[in-house]
Amino acid sequence: MQPARDLKPNFSIPPSSAAPAGSDPYLQSNVRMTLEDSNLWKSFHELGTEMIITKPGRRMFPHCKINLSGLLPYAKYIMLMDMVPVDGFRYKWNKDRWEVAGKAEPQPPCRTYLHPDSPAPGSHWMKQMVSFLKLKLTNNTLDQHGHIILHSMHRYQPRFHIVQADDLFSVRWSVFQTFTFPETTFTAVTAYQNGKITKLKIDNNPFAKGFREQGTNTKRQRALRSHACPEKSLKRLNAVKPETEQRAPPGTEFRSTFYEGYEQEQAELSKPKDGESMKEERYSPWGAEHDPSHSLRTESPLGSDTREIYNAEQMVPTPTSYQPYRFHEFGKSPSPSSSTASTSSGGRPSFESRVPDVATVPDQDAKPSSLEMLPSSCPPSLPTGHATPQDYTGVLNVAMAPPPTKPGVIGHMYNPYTTEQALGQWNGPPHSQYGSSAYPGHHLPSDYSAQSMHHGYHHGNMAEWSQYPLFSYSCW
DNA sequence: TCGGCTCACACTTTTGAATTGC
DNA sequence: AGCAATTCAAAAGTGTGAGCCG
User: Fold this and answer.
1) Straight-line distance from CA A12 to C1' C5, in Å?
2) Nearest-angstrom CA–CA distance, A146 and A38
3) Proximity of residue A248 CB to strand C below 7 A
4) Is the pTM higher than 0.85?
5) How high is the pLDDT of residue A287?
6) Is the CA virtual torsion A420, A257, A59, A181 positive or negative?
7) Residue A337 CA to nucleotide C3 C1', Å?
8) E strand map for A60-153
């Protein structure tokens, strides 16, 4: 376990932009997030975490579970989670390590998972662990169930967003605080590549108990079993079909959708790992990570054409005040003086967010200060002139998990925000009709586009617009 | 030919409705 | 009648590996 001081945010806030303590309680924030099962995550990370993605959707394992502190007990918060590409490459498993196989595929529509408890007061979030158990990953770009869409053989990192907002309607004017944990980085796969990961999963996932004893579930043995009990297999066969037929038709679930910008976070995520980390992970299967020719990404994985495809979907006015935070690679780069990171009592990595002087309703005029702090936030290793570390673009949809008391997709309808509410408020024009004029009043609290502009990257001639609207549309 | 993906399978845990006891 | 605890069947979540596909 790394000492607390080894953890630090990559994204520091210049003192000049920090709100004077006590000046405005609403803006004060000392939010701290810790990752549960951190050791388990690290175990996986050392081997090169793989997450199975399937068409119908697959849960993550390990699950994302976090602890929160520092929230205002009576203020309401919304908890979001999404996935961002770690880099711009597609990978392949070669013998015992991951290797770069080429450029990443164009990003699928990007969705954000909304924690079903949202919105809830800070006391609620702090009183117990916040689990994202129900989140599902899919490789089906046409997915209608609100799962988070990923590409197989690509690397991703989960992000957690805390938004102080009384309801979903207020999100777009609220302060986002984003947290990431490097050890949660994973490669999306449709079938396990690394046998060690398979074993680790089987050892730790109760659902995989049946596979713990090697060879207990081979095709041959299963055939023998079904031979011994053919009626059981038949019953199974009959039971499965109706289930698929009963699948709720598209449109019966709650799903709100919005776009968001990613440039800034991508700049953070795409930072090359420092040399120390490579030493520490010399047994890591992340082969590409260790290849100097691959460790620094110098161009976007997405061609401008691809970006424009996503850009065309929707745009929002440039926001200013979104402050993403993330850990450095855990166990590295001690920086006690500047660090706000700490380790919780359980030795878990945690990160204390310091919200700077962030306007609740970001002002366009705030752009310059926001831009100014970017260079100092970037580690020296970040390539200079890195105009678009990763021009990750996408559509950010909110997928609401069903509440605990209601099963399956129908559960979406029991969310505190009904379909009508959500759609009525958040839905933009149909997918094909997105245009800048649709969201004239957006003040998305995001620095994504700020960074985008800082780097001189404009989506075509849309300099004043981010292509990532918040809560823009629904796709079901 | 090969790498990646899909699917059905057996097994396990989780969920929630029904039942029971107080 | 109301509530909590218990039971149990159904649903959901696992990795596997053959077969399919490009």
Assistant:
1) 52
2) 27
3) no
4) no
5) 53
6) negative
7) 56
8) 65-69, 76-94, 97-103, 111-114, 120-121, 130-131, 136-138, 148-149
